[in-house]
Amino acid sequence: LKEGGKSMNVLNYTQKLKHYPDVLTTDQAAEILNVSKKTLYMAIKNKELHAVKIGREYRIVKAKLVEMLVS
Predict the structure, then answer these.
(1) What is the pTM of this model?
(2) pLDDT tens-digit profile of 12-63?
(3) Backbone angles phi, psi at 64, to 5 degrees
C-alpha cells in the first residue's frame, strides 16, 4: 500500500510538471520548488539535489527533482 501511495505521488508530480522540459535550468527548478536560487544552489552543494554542471551553469534532470520531492 505504501508503494502505491508513493507511485501516485510520482504520477501527480509528473502530471503537474509535464509542461517543463526533461532537463531543467536552475531558474525552472527554483520556480518548481518555490525557493530562491540561493537556496537551490545550497541544496546542490549539500548534495540534497542532484545537478550536472555544464560550463558555468547547472542543469537538473526533472525525474531526479520528482524523486527528491517524493522521498
Answers:
(1) 0.82
(2) 888 889 999 999 999 999 999 999 999 999 999 999 999 999 999 999 999 9
(3) -70, -35
Q: What is the spatial distance between Cα 50 and Cα 30, in angstroms, rounded to a whole number? A: 13
CA distance linking residue 56 with residue 3, whole number of Å: 38
The span from the CA of 26 to the CA of 59, in Å, is 6
Chain centroid offset of residue 46 CA: 15
CA distance 26 to 57: 8
Helix (H), strand (E) at residue 58: strand 57-61
Helices 26-33 and 37-45, packing angle to 10 deg: 100
The sign one gets for the Cα dihedral 2, 4, 8, 10 is: positive
